[in-house]
Amino acid sequence: MADFKELYDYNPYLKEFDSEVVSCTQKDGRFEVILKETAFYPEGGGQPYDIGTLNGIAVMDVQQKKEGIVHTCAAGFEEGEAVHGIIDWNRRFDLMQNHSGEHIVSGLIHRAFGYENVGFHMGEVIQIDFDGPLSDEQLEEIERKANEIVMKNEKIIALFPDEEELKTIDYRSKKELTGVVRIIDIPGADTCACCGTHVAYTGEIGLIKLLSRQKHKKGVRVEMVSGMRAFLYVQKAMKENHAVSVALSAKELETSSAVDALLKASSLKDARIREVSEILLQAKQKEFADGSHLILDFNEPLDRNVLVRHANALADKADIACVFSGNETSWNYMILSRNVDLRQYTKQINSELNGRGGGPKEMIQGNLQASEEQIREALGRIFAM
Ligand SMILES: [Zn+2]
Predict the structure, then answer these.
(1) Ion ligand 1: residues, CB < 5 A
(2) Residuewise pLDDT in 10s, the chain (385 residues)
(3) 104 CA distance to ligand 1 centroid (A)?
(4) 43, 141: one domain
(5) Which of 13, 311, 330, 383 sits at a 20 to 30 Å CA gap from 294?
């Protein structure tokens, strides 16, 4: 646990600061710099580290280590050198919005259902694992309440209670804490031990958007975003919805029923196509003479069940019935026979016609990468009697 003496602990809005180099050690072509005091937040408590510059030199990583807060820099410094640090504020403020948003959601879920946040990761989206189940409706309600807390513009307070005071506070925490504990309190939403950086007022979070819910162990994994990230996500999602609305001539808030209607119409069409192709194939079957030795029949890509029935009808008319579906140089094949063991031909067919496949003695199937002409020639020869 941090000891809360750093600049970011007391003023998370500090974007620039002056300090002094305590030590600088070279490691793998980079430089590990420890400062007298720093506004760079080191990775911890689920929150990623800050980046920025020290005297114009890039700070690429910041970690809390035994010896202090280590800034990994692109170039080195002299011991005792005065430095001016600048934090990448866009990144930091985005992390503050998202971390504070996460507290509100975790806190509201904890208060409503008693669940703990048992896993927390701040990546492109914020991922939180809870140790109990939640439905979409329950999360919708939490999302609405969370945005109410944003709109109330509550002051987010950092408390440093002593041991006795701490015993009287009911707060969320992932582990047993010792030493100085900082409690982040968001009225109406959350009380939690945390070492991260937060916005001063909930209104700065702007927007909290839950993105997805999936089962995780005995609970749920929730993905969310806050702040500008949430706004950009909603903007993108609305653009997608707008495109669907234009394509289907549907109102923006009625796109899903328009899509349902489209899918229904499409599956009715598929059923009609199956019926028509069945009629066409039955007519085609009559063209082949009963008692043939070999039938070769090429078709457009069609429903598999329709083709299986067609191949069976042809197998009643010939020793060997070969049905293909595909185009130009790529064909799926089904070869059926009632009286010849087809397995003996599989290897030769596949090797001559660049194919794959196989099956039991009465039916082999697979695909061939060859033209109709090549297939007719090869099978005519292979199945000749
Ligand atoms: Zn936190």
Answers:
(1) 194, 196
(2) 457 788 998 899 999 999 999 999 999 999 999 999 999 999 998 999 999 999 999 999 999 999 999 999 999 999 999 999 999 999 999 999 999 999 999 999 999 999 999 999 999 999 999 999 999 999 999 999 999 999 999 999 999 998 889 889 999 986 666 778 899 999 999 999 999 999 999 999 999 999 999 999 999 999 999 999 999 999 999 999 999 999 999 999 999 999 999 999 999 999 999 999 999 999 999 999 999 999 999 999 999 999 999 999 999 999 999 999 999 999 999 999 999 999 999 999 999 999 999 999 999 999 999 999 999 999 999 999 6
(3) 10
(4) no
(5) 330
Number of H helices, E strands in the chain: 9, 18
Q: 73 with 126, same domain?
A: no
User: What SS3 state is found at 295?
Assistant: strand
CA 123–ligand 1 middle distance (angstroms)? 15
Do 324 and 200 belong together in one domain?
Answer: no
Q: pTM (2 decimals)? A: 0.82
Residue-by-residue DSSP string for 181-225:
--EEEETTTEEEE--S---SBGGGG--EEEEEEEEETTEEEEEEE
Q: 119 and 79: one domain?
A: no
Tokens matching residue 346: 């599989």
125 shares a domain with 77: no
Centre of ligand 1 from the C-alpha of residue 96, in Å: 10
- Which structural domain, as residue segments, surrounds residue 305? 288-382
CATH number at residue 155: 3.30.980.10
For ligand 1, the distance from its centroid to the CA atom of residue 379, given in whole angstroms, is: 70
